[in-house]
Specification:
The C terminus is likely disordered. The N and C termini lie far apart (49 Å). This protein has a single domain, classed as Immunoglobulins (Immunoglobulin-like, Sandwich). By secondary structure, the chain is of the alpha+beta class. It is flat and about 55 Å long. 14% of the residues lie in helices and 32% in strands.
């Protein structure tokens, strides 16, 4: 009986993990129709809780296990771009893009967290404070494995800014059926072609 409970629990956790990164109807609808939800507000399209530049204006609450927003003096983070369209890629390809930003405020900028909207979107951000007037980059990696069709993913950046969260987007089209995308063979080379 205990073994069956453990198997059931592991199965449920596996399904939840796999489903968390799958495209949901909102992702697909927003990418194909141009409509948005509060969770995926597009830059330049103000909605409740979103400034005209697409940055969130609501104060976040830290979830258990996530870093809290920095406290103390606030500053201003200005991006040269908040959205990158990678165009069309084949299912299984990885895309990388660097977003440049500048601390245009008068206090050091401290980024406490950067989190992708799903496990396929992974940000890397500077851990050290950014001096006033200095620029830095946030690198975002998108893995199209298991994806198909239009994609719009976001990265939420938590810092000592007002508002405390800024959002950047990566989007594009994944071509091909993710179920039939052949993985690259071990040891390099090219995958065999279907005939």
């Amino acid at each position: 009986m205990l073994k069956q409970i453990k198997i059931g629990f592991l199965t449920m956790m596996t399904v939840a993990a796999l489903a968390s990164c799958k495209n949901d109807a909102a992702d697909t609808a927003a990418a194909t129709t141009g409509t948005t939800t509060d969770a995926m507000a597009q830059p330049g399209a103000p909605t409740d809780g979103t400034a005209a530049n697409g940055l969130s204006t609501t104060a976040p609450t830290a979830a258990p296990g996530e870093p809290a927003a920095p406290t103390g003096p606030t500053t201003v983070m200005s991006f040269t771009e908040t959205e990158f369209n990678f165009g069309k890629v084949k299912a299984g390809e990885k895309v990388e893009h660097e977003y440049t930003f500048k601390n245009t405020g008068k206090e050091p900028l401290v980024i406490s967290n950067a989190k992708g909207s799903c496990g396929c979107t992974v940000p890397e951000w500077p851990k050290e404070p950014i001096a006033p007037g200095a620029s830095a980059k946030i690198k975002v990696n998108f893995d199209s494995k298991g994806k198909s069709g239009p994609q719009t993913k976001q990265v939420t950046i938590t810092a000592n800014t007002d508002p405390v969260q800024s959002i950047i987007y990566i989007k594009g089209d994944v071509i091909g059926d993710p179920a039939t995308a052949a993985p690259a063979p071990a040891g390099g080379g090219t995958a065999p072609q279907k005939q």
